């Protein structure tokens, strides 16, 4: 079997306010072309198809169109799972009849234990889950941490192993020892804590989602595909693409196929004068997204407006000496912030840091803790 492994599409994502629809659509077309050229037997999407649990209608339409093209038009079997940015309930809409066209979309932990059976391979599709989900499924309150929960999940999967076949796992989590960028959540709350990599040893290949760089984890039989598009300046140096997984060989053969962006994300450090007169520099594509650092030490009037005449997609602007560049970003006033309820402030802060909203369970815990704090009590 030859499979294509991709993940973290994050349809609906913006880059500091810039719309990435064209970049994401182009990346998808390249993925589709690679799948056709490699004549793959199926496509694994390891979570985070959407960027938000409540995606815009345009994002829903885009994901639907992509899945339809791969599955109904191109006739590729699709093996997909929900990630921590997806709404499992919304993503699951329509799944009862998806399997008739070989579109397997698992969004609940209970679906992880019955593999998709192929000629020489079993594919286990394990969607993003929190320890609370494992506690409920196994009726075991002792599963307080993700490593405990995941160990129990893997043990349950292994009961279904066919020794005559290869065993593949698609999952969405942070593997211990992986490196992250600032476009990924940097919290280790609930289900986002680390999973020990030794729990993956019994699988011939683990197709991971959640981290956006293919080099986030160096493990023979487990890889992140990374996101197809760069979502932050910290990803500027990353090579984006997909893995081709050939299960006919032992160990499984992995080949990375790169994607070329329409507009790249780059870091640029230079003086204002050089930058403003760089229009004839063939080494600079001025339509790319830039994080610019100025080397100037003197204040520059209207610096952002003047630079944007040359670089229309400036993502951030800073000074090498650490002083302000006089950039002003639109935002709420201090008075507006002070008028917000504590729960609203907490939710806004979490979403700003984690790049996703609180889960219903996390929101329940937060409300309980805030109530106890307002009453002068101690959290239980």
Task: Please describe the structure with a list of short key phrases separated by commas or semicolons.
single chain, 380 residues, alpha/beta, Purple Acid Phosphatase, chain A, domain 2, six-stranded mixed β-sheet, five-stranded mixed β-sheet, 28% helix, 21% strand, globular
Q: Can you describe this structure?
A:
This protein has 380 residues and is α/β, with parallel strands linked by helices. The protein folds into 3 domains: 257 residues, Metallo-dependent phosphatases (Purple Acid Phosphatase, chain A, domain 2), CATH 3.60.21; 55 residues; 41 residues, no CATH class. The protein contains 11 helices and 18 strands. The strands form 5 sheets. It has a 6-stranded mixed β-sheet with strand order 6-5-4-1-14-15, covered by helices on one side. The termini are far apart. About 4% of the residues have low confidence. Heterodimer of SbcC and SbcD. This is Nuclease SbcCD subunit D.
Beta content comes to: 15-25%
- Structural class, from helix and strand content? alpha/beta
Average of pLDDT: 88
Cα(first) to Cα(last) distance is: 51 Å
Which regions contain 5 or more consecutive residues with pLDDT less than 50?
Answer: 186-192, 324-331
- Calculate Rg over CA atoms: 23 Å
Q: Which CATH class of the largest domain?
A: Alpha Beta
Q: Tell me the CATH superfamily of the largest domain.
A: Metallo-dependent phosphatases
CATH topology of the largest domain: Purple Acid Phosphatase, chain A, domain 2
**Beta-strand segment tally:** 18
Q: What is the spatial order of strands in the main beta sheet?
A: 6-5-4-1-14-15
What is the helix tally?
Answer: 11
Order of helices and strands: EEEHEHEHHEEEHHEEEEEEEEHEHEHHH
